[in-house]
Amino acid sequence: MEYQQKYRWAVTGLVVMILLNAITLGAIWFDRPDQILQEDVERPPRDHMQQFMKKELNLTDAQADTIRTIRGRHFREVRQLMGDLGETRNEYFEAMTNSGQGNSDIKDSLSNELTSRYLQVERMLYRHISEVGNVLDDDQKPRYKELMKETFIRGRHNGKREQRRGHERK
Question: What are the UniProt keywords, alphabetically (predicted)?
């Protein structure tokens, strides 16, 4: 009789643990805070950025076409540079994981190259922002400056991280 009672308790414990695991997994998979969902809705996807900018800045068709061309060129250049950067990062990782003394110069060289390329990406970004700003008229520039400030200076990703931690964006 005692054996059957222990068996029932063991089965009951197993069922409770399975239920708790299922609830935990469900919470992880399906429970997203409303703030994050709302932010995803507010942030226009890259494909719709052109329409978003046209609406927000009241762009003319000519301005929109020029900006589309500038953006296309910018993203092609950045994509190419990021591909090169990825290759250099892989080489750097390989050099870092090889513990030989002779590869110190290689590590320094790759580190300098990575730094240079990251700076180049930043320069390209600010050149792009400037080129788009030059297409705008004086009435559109203040709103454009606001949009760029919201996007790049305040740091959209830092804001998301803070919201996930329960802090409000400042």
Answer: Membrane, Transmembrane, Transmembrane helix
